[in-house]
Write a structure and sequence with these properties.
Elements lengths: L5 H4 L18 H9 L5 H4 L4 H25 L5 H19 L5 H25 L3 H21 L7 H26 L13 E2 L2 E2 H29 L7 H27 L1
Antiparallel strand pairs: 1-2
Length: 268
């Protein structure tokens, strides 16, 4: 299946089922010994598991939230914090994405940087549009929760065709975002939302693009869950649980920022 996250696709552990499977044939005695042995966890087997990946993801988000809380209180007097967080987060995000093996230290550093960015822009948006942060947080939790529930129940799955469409849409979205950022940065547009403030048939363009971006982020979550499932089924090394945590964190931050911007545009 075509993939969109190099952090997963560059590792055989997240490939087709059986990519890392052993071909050794066990004797009846060995099978009986395995059956009688106590259940082993991720620490005992040094293999990736859902529980271990959840623990790593929780730790990453905990650090992100701590950094976000600090940035929330410090940004009004230190306006450079969200900018610093965005720059450092971008650099670390690229490094973590293209590393063949995950680095817990770099992934946690990314979580801290993204926390500075998220907390900083959140307090700025909250000052301009009171209540918008609570709306964005609740909407993010709903999207993540619904997507996870549907995936766990087998209602939605990643497919080769859908992933190709997702990739094409992502390229278009990135091009639009870069053009829009350039126009705003160089003063070609007065609105802080740039082209997103323009209207199409009476509807803000930012609202239309934002909804499409949320749909793409939801599908990106499906890809993240699918890759983690493949890693567990292929008995990937335990360290790749950090890759799963990193992928989910990137997607959730993107989803939150898009929802925050959507509610701000609607309020505006």
């Amino acid at each position: 299946m075509a993939t969109s996250n190099p952090a997963f696709s560059r590792n055989a552990a997240f490939g087709a089922p059986g990519a890392l499977a052993s071909t050794k044939v066990l004797s009846p005695t060995e099978l009986q010994d395995l059956y009688n042995a106590p259940a082993a966890g991720a620490q005992d087997t040094d293999r990736m598991s859902y529980e271990d990946t959840i623990a790593k993801t929780t730790l990453s988000f905990a650090l992100l939230l701590v950094a976000a809380a600090a940035s929330w209180f410090l940004t009004p007097s230190m306006i450079f914090l969200p900018i610093l967080g965005a720059i450092v987060g971008l650099v670390l995000g690229l490094v973590n994405t293209f590393k063949k093996e995950p680095s817990p230290a770099l992934i946690l550093a990314y979580a801290g940087a993204e926390g500075l960015f998220v907390g900083g822009i959140s307090v700025i948006f909250e000052q301009l549009y009171p209540g918008v942060v609570v709306q964005a947080v609740l909407a993010t939790l709903v999207v993540v929760g619904v997507t996870l529930a549907l995936f766990a129940n087998g209602k939605i799955r990643a497919s080769k065709k859908a992933t190709k469409v997702f990739m094409i849409a992502m390229v278009g979205y990135l091009v639009f975002s870069l053009v829009n950022f350039g126009l705003v940065a160089f003063g070609a547009l007065d609105s802080p939302f740039g082209l997103r403030s323009a209207e199409f048939m009476g509807i803000p363009l930012g609202l239309i693009i934002g909804v499409l971006a949320v749909i793409m982020a939801a599908y990106s979550l499906v890809l993240d869950f699918d890759f983690i499932q493949r890693g567990v089924n292929n008995r990937a090394p335990r360290k790749f649980g950090w890759s799963g945590a990193f992928g989910i964190m990137v997607t959730v931050v993107w989803l939150y920022v898009e929802l925050l911007r959507i509610f701000a545009i609607v309020r505006d």
